[in-house]
Amino acid sequence: MHSHKSLPPLARTCLAVLAALAAVCWFAPLLSRYGPVLPDWESLSAVPGRAGHWFGTDAIGRDVFARTLAGGRLSLGIGLLASVVALVIGLSYGAVAGLAGGRVERLMLRVLDVFSALPFLLVVILLLTLFERSLWLLLAAIGGYVWIDLARVMRAEAARLREAPFVLAAQAAGASFGQRLRWHVLPNLMPLAFVYLGLILPQAILVESFLGFLGLSIDEPSSSWGGLLAEGVQELDSAPWTLLFPAGFLVATLAAFQFLGDGLRDWLDVRGDPRQDAAPSEAAAA
Question: 164 lies in a domain?
Fold first, then answer.
């Protein structure tokens, strides 16, 4: 890893865009005199720019600008928290499997194969349908959906670190499994995990938006971008801006995160695509 390299210009631009977007969403109440919930009965389905409604209003007079930024605050917050959940699970699971090696590693890989074979998104939808929806259940469901690929990547890298001279020297010096994991493996996995966080975060946001579109995310009056898209589809003929603005914010956010993740991977000098590197190592473990 070459820390002297500067962050690529595209990644810096994406980081600035995401920081600006997060700041705008966070300070949304200061930017508009209209709230995301209370309707303006004198401006029903108002076109953008009319009566101070920058993005227009929906069919019952709610300000689309305020609702888009409030939805962004919800989508970004849930996506970030769910990604942290996935990062903790995937990093821990992959590091233990890769460092353990042998029968333990093969068993843990088989568990990953079973999870990969499940229609996990359908399982998430079933859980959110059967149980009372809450923020914690939503975070656990989304985090449990996006952690599997991360665990495979972390396992492959941990398996390489297992044969590194400094890990073998620590083992020869009598370091326990937990000590090698905590002092040598996890610190060396963190740069790759940091890169991969930028890749799973947009996936978590996309899953949350899909659940919101199905009506399985946070209930009204709060609506994430997915919920706003579902509402916008209903008003597409009479007020298309109710769909276009939330969709534009969602697409721009996902694209910025994707380019930022690619830039971070190049900046930290991670070799190739870590998801591709995982496959040969898994074949060797099998």
Answer: yes
